[in-house]
């Protein structure tokens, strides 16, 4: 457990003097934790506003402005609209080495509108919601960055801190465009976290993925009077999705294939001229994903031939599997053990149990304990993230923190409800502490930075990063 903080006011006033006299890492961490405590009300307010905006990929106009404005008010130099994305920004403070980055996200998911209550109730049916807790993600990261900025400003640590406001993680992959532009190239170590139902330093790799749009085009006709004059684009699309479902039997168990129809035609009495779907393919390595991507393109061409229509496949984005760093993992886990477990009150537990019951999972409540560190996990992460691309450019730390009850489905209304509740706020606060205390270790211990970078150099030996996104600017809506 972390040693008790004696008094918030005492630490806020005395931490700079203590650090100048003794300069211990422990004292600096107490000062950073006290700074985050002092921001608590502001951070909850920021998080709740982003939760209410619930803006999806590359449309996070209000969310990005809110966080960038807060960073500017705290004294950061803010560059907005980086890498061709109006909702991406970088907030910087300090100079020289090391350069430590902290990532924040703030995009929501479509069709997950939900109140901050443990029973399913949409605010506006069909509207977006924060089903991955990114309202907490971006806010906690910025709170940690502000605490570190204050220590640089007072001269207690030296170097450069950057907060990266990164949009469109759930679709498109904003970080990939930022990586392509070289915005991470000079960073020594990047820090990140993600909401979860457990708190752990996760060294499991994520899945590599390609995101595509497949479009078919045919010829309209009256579906009853002269269907023989039509060529159904929907026939082509259905042939493709049938083929994809057959393909599932003949791929490795680690492969995941998902699709959702975007355009399924218009009126039933019109042979559809157009039809399209979003198709995602995942596996443990990018090489396998690209092979399956080629097979899918051939299948689309075959489906088009069978339906006597045309087909086109457009790459929207592709993300690598994440590269983990065990030296960094040990550093973060040590700080989590120092901070101890997240504590919940009776109201939190009642909320969690009701939510679990509403979602049909065991009503066991919250688990705020720090999970053991497993440096050789046998299981892979189930998801994909554009943070993985960053991890192949710069050593990247990604920690999970409990912000929702255990066992509830992710990307669901239950996560949205949790992300707007005190349960989510407590996880957000804890995550900010983990990021800030780890950043202090990196700023004050050059040998730790070098160990992390040495492992990264060995892991990436012979690798040259390539961004799997279309040429040209991001697809701004």
What does the secondary structure layout of this molecule look like, with pairings?
Elements: H1 8-21, H2 25-38, H3 40-53, H4 61-73, E1 77-80, E2 89-94, E3 99-104, H5 134-153, E4 160-165, H6 174-180, E5 189-196, E6 200-201, E7 208-217, H7 233-247, E8 256-263, E9 274-283, H8 286-307, E10 310-319, H9 326-339, H10 346-358, H11 387-391, E11 396-402, H12 413-419, H13 422-444, H14 446-459
Helix pairs in contact: 1-2, 2-5, 2-13, 3-4, 3-5, 5-13, 7-8, 9-13, 9-14
Entry summary:
This protein has helices at residues 8-21, 25-38, 40-53, 61-73, 134-153, 174-180, 233-247, 286-307, 326-339, 346-358, 387-391, 413-419, 422-444, 446-459; strands at 77-80, 89-94, 99-104, 160-165, 189-196, 200-201, 208-217, 256-263, 274-283, 310-319, 396-402.
Describe it for me?
The protein is built from 14 helices and 11 strands. The chain is of the alpha/beta class. The protein folds into 2 domains: 8-206 and 322-459, 3-Layer(aba) Sandwich (Aminopeptidase), CATH 3.40.630; 208-319, Alpha-Beta Plaits, CATH 3.30.70.360. The strands form 2 sheets. It has a 7-stranded mixed β-sheet. It has a 4-stranded antiparallel β-sheet with strand order 8-9-7-10. Helix 1 packs antiparallel against helix 2, helix 2 (25-38) packs antiparallel against helix 13 (422-444) and helix 9 crosses helix 13 (422-444). The chain is globular and about 85 Å long. The relative contact order is 0.17.
């Amino acid at each position: 457990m972390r040693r008790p903080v004696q008094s918030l006011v005492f630490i806020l006033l005395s931490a700079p003097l203590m650090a100048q006299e003794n300069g211990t890492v422990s004292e600096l961490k107490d000062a950073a934790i006290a700074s985050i405590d002092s921001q608590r009300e502001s951070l909850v307010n920021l998080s709740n506003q982003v939760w209410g905006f619930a803006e999806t990929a590359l449309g996070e106009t209000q969310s990005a402005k809110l966080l960038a404005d807060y960073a500017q008010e705290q004294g950061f130099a803010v560059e907005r609209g980086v890498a061709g994305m109006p909702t991406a920004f970088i907030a910087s403070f300090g100079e020289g080495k090391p350069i430590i980055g902290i990532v924040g996200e703030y995009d929501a998911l479509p069709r997950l509108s939900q109140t901050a209550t443990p029973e399913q109730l949409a605010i506006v049916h069909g509207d977006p919601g924060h089903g991955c807790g990114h309202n907490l993600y971006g806010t906690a990261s910025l709170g940690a960055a502000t605490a570190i900025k204050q220590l640089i400003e007072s001269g207690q640590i030296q170097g450069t801190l950057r907060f990266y406001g990164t949009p469109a993680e759930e679709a498109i992959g904003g970080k990939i465009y930022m990586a392509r532009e070289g915005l991470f190239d000079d960073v020594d170590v990047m820090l990140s976290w993600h909401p979860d139902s457990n708190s752990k330093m996760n060294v499991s790799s994520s899945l590599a993925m390609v995101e595509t749009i497949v479009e078919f085009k045919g010829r309209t006709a009256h579906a009853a009077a002269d269907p023989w004059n039509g060529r159904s684009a929907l026939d082509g699309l259905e042939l493709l999705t049938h083929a994809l479902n057959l393909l599932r039997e003949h791929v490795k168990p680690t492969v995941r294939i998902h699709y959702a129809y975007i355009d399924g035609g218009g009126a039933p009495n019109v042979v559809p001229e157009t039809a399209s779907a979003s198709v995602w393919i995942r596996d443990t390595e990018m090489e396998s994903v690209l092979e399956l991507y080629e097979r899918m393109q051939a299948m689309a061409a075959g489906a088009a031939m069978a339906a006597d229509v045309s087909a086109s496949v457009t790459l929207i984005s592709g993300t690598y599997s994440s590269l983990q760093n065990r030296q960094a993992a040990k550093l973060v886990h040590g700080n989590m053990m120092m901070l101890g477990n997240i504590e919940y009150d009776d109201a939190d537990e009642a909320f969690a149990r009701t939510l679990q019951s509403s979602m049909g999972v065991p009503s066991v409540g919250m688990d705020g304990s720090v999970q053991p560190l497993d440096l050789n996990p046998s299981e892979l992460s189930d998801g994909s993230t554009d943070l993985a691309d960053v991890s192949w450019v710069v050593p990247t730390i990604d920690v999970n923190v409990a912000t929702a009850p255990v066992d509830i489905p992710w990307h669901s209304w239950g996560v949205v409800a949790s992300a707007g509740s005190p349960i989510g706020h407590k996880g957000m606060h804890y995550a900010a502490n983990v990021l800030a205390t780890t950043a202090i270790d990196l700023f004050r211990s050059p040998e730790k930075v070098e160990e992390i970078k040495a492992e990264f150099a060995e892991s990436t030996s012979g690798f040259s990063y390539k961004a799997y996104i279309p040429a040209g600017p991001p697809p701004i809506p």
